[in-house]
Design brief:
15 helices, alpha+beta, 5-stranded antiparallel beta sheet
Length: about 675
């Protein structure tokens, strides 16, 4: 995987590990990765010097048997497998039974589960995991551990962490770590992490320990506190469990320190807030019940009002189960109870608890009080596993991280005590719970019955890469990223530029354009409708209607213009439909164009613009005319589209002059 100054880029294509645009280095994600790489390195060193205790192995086998028993359905045909699992549980708990004696029965249980439920079933998965876990342990006992492999992994993990350069991520004037670095713009993000109660404090500690950042940076982090009960807790940006507790997966919060008290009071505040609104507790950044055009859940940060500086925290009620997992490191008993409550709501799936439960009134189905966000995020599932492991094993991951000599050298920073007094302040207006504004699901639509005389307005259509701007009279331009595909120059008093469609009645010679521009003929007969997903231009005359719809593809970088001709008269009619656009393929909208495309409905043309500067790649676009169904009448030989602007328009003229050429 490519790196920049030792940092792995933030987004990659999971299919080929290609870096996704924009190439970005995230400070907080690099800090988290570095901290956990150090933890892995210390774990490899520990495993190389000490074998896993047999009691630990027996407990892990017992846990796997329990999961297999839960996955086994209560059916008569499953009784034999259930009895075998029960016998394995008893034998595993008995210290007098050698583990080697269990391997035959674990193999049989795996085979039976496969025959009963099939390869993709949960019971087959867990019995197979049981057998292979025992098999791997016995193999480790039979021979010496592969210390060379462990040393290789240890060296690799530590090297990856140490090679990350955090010095260039420091904003020199503020002495704070920037949010990240964009390779596309070659500059740091303008915003910085300026609070101690944030997920970036692990990156700060690691950067100080490594020597990339001065120690004084730690004391530049804000320590604004808010009273909670009889104590005080540090303020975060969004009041989420992620900000407060994620660093504690590997970082210690010594008893009596400001971080330890903050973590304890924040979990209590989350529980109190949940009880006050009658919901399970555990609010943190997560996906919520809203999807984009690709049906992907949207993601945002959520928190508890009063704990965060962000406005509007009370407007959303999204409970993330992984937040309960993080809180298990602080209050394990309450976490177990909250997990049970979430399970009753149906939040537990095959791979663990779902991403979130959305209780926000504007996003739940009719006659329901909540919506399940049925997805699993590997990051959140991993944090849940790590936090529960810390809870059950007395902070083993934290011990391994702090076993690194470099980290031991800066541990004193974590012992900062709680201030003796905190000035009480009334709640900010943004923290007072108020009724949320009603959100209408009615699609927004703008209708222009007289676009020729209406006030100038614009409509934008985009998929994030390809965009189209249109006015109510039909002018506009197309662009792709920062490239202008067609020419544009705003002209308030005459026909401007854009992609235009001309329709001519071959019998009467009557000519009009899809929109008011560029011909401006029969303006009272034109009508324009702008909606969220398209723009429609309608031309109405007796017994005949022309409707032109413009959309931008959500999947491809393309626009589509569909012309619908509706004849409600008694006689058949024949028309010529001609489209015109001037290719620009330049980086600045508003300058002179590069080439023109004059296109007849019976053909299409590929237009390309090659830059004079060899550093810029060739940019091409292809107008295409799809045909649906059999042709209505035979088409004559298709003429070649004209790339010369002077032929259809002429000198010192405008696109309206095409009307004369067509006639």
């Amino acid at each position: 995987m490519p790196r920049y100054r030792g940092h792995v880029f933030n987004w990659h294509d999971t299919r080929d590990l290609r870096v996704l645009d924009p190439a970005y280095v995230s400070t907080v994600d690099s800090g988290n990765l570095a901290g956990h790489l150090i933890t892995i390195a210390q774990a490899c060193r520990e495993w190389g010097h000490s074998a896993v205790a047999e009691n630990t192995v027996r407990q892990s086998l017992a846990d796997t048997i329990t999961l297999a028993r839960q996955a086994l359905e209560s059916k008569p045909e499953n009784a034999a497998l259930g009895n075998m699992l029960d016998a394995l549980a008893v034998a595993t708990a008995s210290q007098t039974t050698p583990l080697a004696d269990l391997i035959t029965n674990t193999a049989k249980s795996s085979t039976m589960a496969l025959d009963l439920a099939g390869e993709g079933s949960d019971i087959a998965f867990w019995t197979n995991a049981l057998h292979h876990s025992l098999q791997d342990h016995l193999a480790d006992q039979a021979g010496p551990s592969d210390t060379i492999l462990l040393e290789t992994v240890e060296t690799m993990a530590r090297s990856l962490a140490y090679e990350m350069d955090f010095a260039f991520l420091l904003e020199p004037d503020k002495k704070l770590l920037s949010i990240g670095f964009s390779l596309a713009t070659n500059r740091l993000d303008a915003n910085c992490y300026d609070l101690l109660a944030s997920e970036a404090r692990l990156a700060s500690l690691f950067a100080i320990a490594k020597g990339d950042v001065d120690t004084r940076h730690w004391f530049r982090l804000g320590r604004t506190a808010t009273p909670i009960g009889a104590g005080s807790a540090l303020i975060s940006w969004s009041g989420s469990m992620f900000e407060y507790l994620m660093p504690s997966l590997v970082m210690r919060a010594p008893v009596g320190s400001v971080l330890e008290q903050t973590n304890r009071l924040v979990v209590a505040a989350q529980q109190t807030y949940g009880a006050a609104i009658g919901l399970p507790w555990g609010i943190s950044e997560s996906s919520y019940n809203a999807r984009d055009l690709e049906m992907t859940y949207q993601y945002s940060n959520f928190g508890v009002p009063g704990l965060g500086l962000k406005r509007g925290l009370s407007e959303n009620q999204v409970v993330a189960p992984y937040a309960t997992g993080l809180a298990a490191m602080v209050d394990p008993v309450a976490a177990v109870q909250n997990y049970r409550r979430l399970a009753v709501l149906g939040a537990e799936g095959r791979f663990g608890f779902f991403e979130a439960v959305d209780f926000t009134s504007g996003r739940v189905p009719e006659n329901e009080d909540h919506a399940l966000v049925r997805s699993f995020m590997a990051h959140h599932q991993g944090m849940t596993i790590a936090s529960i492991a810390n809870t059950l094993q007395d902070g083993r991951l934290r011990d391994r991280f702090h076993a690194e000599p470099m980290i031991q050298g800066v541990e004193l920073l974590l012992h900062e005590r709680v201030p003796r007094a905190v000035a009480a302040a009334p709640p900010r207006a943004k923290d007072v719970v108020v009724g949320t504004a009603e959100i209408s699901d009615t699609p927004t639509m703008r209708v222009f019955d007289a676009p020729a005389t209406s006030a100038p307005t614009a409509h934008l259509l985009s998929n994030g890469q390809y965009g189209v701007m249109l006015t109510a009279t039909g002018e506009g331009f197309s662009c792709w990223r920062d490239l202008a595909i067609t020419r544009w120059r705003s002209e308030a008093t005459q026909a401007a530029l854009g992609s235009f469609i001309y329709i001519r009645d071959t019998t009467t010679g009557t000519l009009w354009s899809a929109g008011v521009q560029p011909i401006r003929a029969d303006t009272p007969r034109h009508r324009t409708v702008f909606s969220e997903h398209q723009a429609a231009f309608i031309h109405q005359e007796p017994n005949f209607t022309t409707t032109t719809e413009v959309v931008v593809s959500a999947e491809d970088d393309a626009e589509a213009r569909r012309v619908t001709l509706t004849n409600t008269g008694r006689r058949s009619r024949e028309f010529d439909v001609t489209s015109y656009a001037e290719a620009r393929a330049g980086r600045a909208i508003g300058r002179s164009g590069a080439s023109g495309v004059f296109q007849d409905v019976r053909g299409h043309r590929l237009s390309a613009r090659t830059w004079r500067d060899h550093r810029h790649p060739t940019t091409s676009f292809a107008p295409a005319i799809p045909r649906f169904g059999p042709p209505i009448s035979p088409l004559s030989k298709a003429p070649k589209p004209d790339r010369s602007r002077s032929k259809p328009i002429g000198r010192n003229s405008s696109v309206a002059a095409i009307a004369c050429k067509i006639l």
